[in-house]
Structure formats: structure tokens, C-alpha cells
Amino acid sequence: MTWSTTGSATGVVQINLKPVSFELNVWARGEIISQYFGPGTGSIMFQVDDVRLPDVLPEGLETVLHCLIRMMLQAPLSNLQLPFRVKGDRSLTRTKSKCGEIFKEELCRT
């Protein structure tokens, strides 16, 4: 936000706020990490490997934004785990998550 103040003849100060907007192109590359706890059970996690910010100048600003955006992407993904269990009929069922929510969908492997 940018702001400016103007005075009037009556001595009342007015504050004018103007929102600032911009567009930032962000490219992120990552990988899916799977952990197996036993036959047919495990979890899937995500990790951010690289972040690219094309056409950001000066270089110092690009470096700072690169670091901040990578941390903002990695922080929620580091705590995200999608547990799974493979049933005997070769279908994949999502199991109870750490948050206590139960997923009832079944994903069939082909």
C-alpha cells in the first residue's frame, strides 16, 4: 500500500491509501518421496528442490525472494504426509491422516 495525506482548510487531515499490485512468475521443481513401513503401507511426502524467478532485477532482490519463496513452499510441504495402504485386490486406499480425517476414496491401480 502507498499512502499520502492531504490537509484541508478546516484542518482535517485525510489519508489516501492506494493498493500496490504486481505479478511475479515463480517456477518450482520438486520431488515426491515415498516411505514404506511394511508390506503395502507407507506414506507419500513432497520436497521442493529448486525455485526460479525469471526477470527479477536487481540480483540481490532475486536472491532474497528466491530464499523466501522456497521457505514458504517447503514449510507446509515438510509437514504434509499422505499415508496409504494397499489392499489385497491391488487397490490403493488412503488411510487416516495425522489430522484425524478419514479419506473414503479408493484409488485403483491398473
Explain what the structure shows.
With 110 residues, this protein is α+β, with helices and mostly antiparallel strands. Helix content is 18%, strand content 44%. It has one helix at 59-78; strands at residues 2-7, 13-18, 27-38, 41-52, 82-86, 91-94, 106-108. The chain has a five-stranded antiparallel β-sheet with strand order 3-4-5-6-7. A two-stranded antiparallel ribbon has the order 1-2. Mean pLDDT is 78; it is low at 98-110.
Distance between the termini: 52 Å
Radius of gyration: 24 Å
How many runs of DSSP E, i.e. beta strands?
7
Whole-number mean pLDDT: 78
Strand content: 35-45%
**Tell me about the biggest sheet?**
5 strands, antiparallel
Going by helix content, strand content and strand pairing, the class is: alpha+beta
One letter per element, helices H and strands E, the order comes to EEEEHEEE
Helical content (DSSP H or I, runs of 4+)? 10-25%
| Strand neighbour order, sheet with most strands | 3-4-5-6-7
Brief digest:
The chain has 110 residues and is α+β, with helices and mostly antiparallel strands. It has one domain (25-108). It contains 1 helix and 7 strands; from the N terminus they run ββββαβββ.
Question: What distinguishing features does this structure have?
Answer:
5-stranded antiparallel sheet; alpha+beta; elongated; 7 strands; 110 residues; 18% helix; disordered C terminus; two-stranded antiparallel sheet; 44% strand
